[in-house]
Amino acid sequence: MTALFQHYLPPAPAMLPYVPGRFYASQHARAVGASLAMVANRLYCVPYLLARPGLFSAMAVSVTTGAAGFLRMALAADNGAGRPGAVIEEPLADAETTTGAALCPFAQPRWIPAGIWWLLLCFSGTPSVRGTSTQAFSGGNTLLLGSAAADGGAGGGTTGSENGFFAALAHQAGVPIMPNPPSGLSYLVNAAAPLPTLRAA
Question: I want to staple 48 with a disulfide (CB 3.0 to 4.6 A). Which of 72, 117, 140, 143 is the partner?
Fold first, then answer.
């Protein structure tokens, strides 16, 4: 094609649009094939990179092996120092942790600007869910959080792969339970994190 006709080509969109009803993982992360066993009454804080803004109706996680109990999720801002900050919304309608999509809808569809966010999770039982990689080169959260190792987390290991934060937190139904902001956090070291998603509205 000549340069003359190239001049009249319409510009292509930089990224595909969000499709209502579809689920979107953090735009740096990749799920691994194995399931990840959850610990009951633990707060998991997982970073979420949203490359472009969008309207979302719910947060979710994929349960691969169901267990009796419930899941509470919340959306939190970043505190500007690489840790979860203020809780933006904590829907009180818990999701059952049977096999499939454990869905925690927002009170109404929420416009979320591009940037770094945190998805907070607390399980009352011990289901297994789809998890992230533990290594930076294959899409682990160490890409966002940095690593104590000079390879940036590429090799995993006991000091090189930090995939989120955790703290003890007792699940209670019907009342807010998420600390605001989360505190007393420890790194999830050399361990996969649950892979949460946002459902487009």
Answer: 117
Q: What is the 3-state secondary structure (H, E, C) of 23-59?
A: EEECCCCCEEEEEEECCCCEEEEEEEEECCCEEEEEE
Contacting residues for 177 by C-beta, under 8 A, at least 6 apart: 72, 90, 122, 169, 170, 171
Q: Is the pLDDT of residue 109 over 90?
A: yes
pLDDT single digits (tens) 14-42: 678 999 999 999 987 765 656 889 999 99
CB contact set of 129 (below 8 Å; sequence gap of 6+): 35, 36, 38, 61, 62, 63, 64, 102, 194, 195
Contact by Cβ (8 Å): 187, 134: no
Q: What is the dihedral of CA 85, 88, 94, 95, to 10 degrees?
A: -90
Answering whether pTM is above 0.70, one says yes
Judged by phi (left if over 0) then psi (alpha if -120 to 50, else beta), residue 160 lies in: alpha
Q: Which of 76, 110, 74 is nearest to 94 (CA)?
A: 74
Q: Which amino acid is at 35?
A: S
pLDDT one-digit tens code per residue, 120-154? 999 999 999 998 776 655 557 877 787 777 777 66
CB 33, CB 97: distance < 8 Å? no
DSSP, residue by residue, 148-196: SSTTTTTT--TTT-EEEEEEE----TTS--S-SS--S-EEEETS--B--
